[in-house]
Amino acid sequence: MISILTSLFAPSYLVGQTTDAEIEASLTVNVTNSTANGSATVNDEVLVTIYEQEKPTQTLTGNVGSDSKAVFENIPTGNNITALPRVKHQNMMFNGHPIALKTGQTVFSGHVEVYEVSTDKSKLSVAAHHFIVKVEADYLRITEYMRLNNSSDMAITSEEKDGNDNSKVIEAMLPKGFKNLVFSRYFQENALVITKDGFYDTMAIPPGQYDADFSYRLEIDSETIDIVKTISLPTSEFMVFSLLDKGKLQGLGDSGGEVNLADGSSAEYFSFPELKASEQIKFQVVGFNIKKSNSNVVIILIVIFALMALLVIWRLRGQKS
For the segment 187-206, what is each residue's pLDDT rounded down to a tens digit? Predict the structure, then answer.
């Protein structure tokens, strides 16, 4: 009876895995420095975070040996259990890919690439930057897509620090009045600092190209909305895509025509090649029908009621006298 109850009420991820605790599984993390002539990784700290059903349960720590490996013994295995290896090199943390710790398997391996760290931000650029404008309910939805490019073989951080000693690696300036900022790819929210003018990323950028995108709202509070977009990094091509009716965007020059976006929608586009950091793209979204405020009517009613109150007081005083 006890065994039956145990099987009925055991957590779902333990059912059918009662022998896993008896299996001695090991994980080997291979570490390589992918910067040419980079320093040795011996004694670099290695951290392996264990996740069960996508929730972190424990973090194992070790160090890279002379064979460029760190070995972890007696690791848990089972369905929905994964391991994420990370390595700290030159005070920067580098992530590997998640490793599925499948039931019945006893030997696992992972790989983490580390790089030398540089503060030379001249190697950072944007290969393409898309700025998509559309209307949702009573606000504008702006979606920005950036293909970040690190042309060096080093991880790039920044010498510029904020008040909490966080590096300002990439600073993204957003149009005035942005709200409800949401990140979809690349940027990790725990490494971001949001400001009144936009946000900046504190995480070093490894070599290569990375697709990043995010979106936010701009309230429709007037018939014409002014938008100013400041370029953060040297940009090979900046494109504005409009999902609005033709003629709604003004100040961008001649349209390049129409193009189908990834979701199948058709958009009018405007293209700007070779922009420098700090350059600005300025334009207006026009033609909104904004209901006139009733504030004038409210003020008139307040004045009328005030006069009526004074009249009542004057009459009461007359009766008393």
Answer: 988 899 999 999 999 999 99
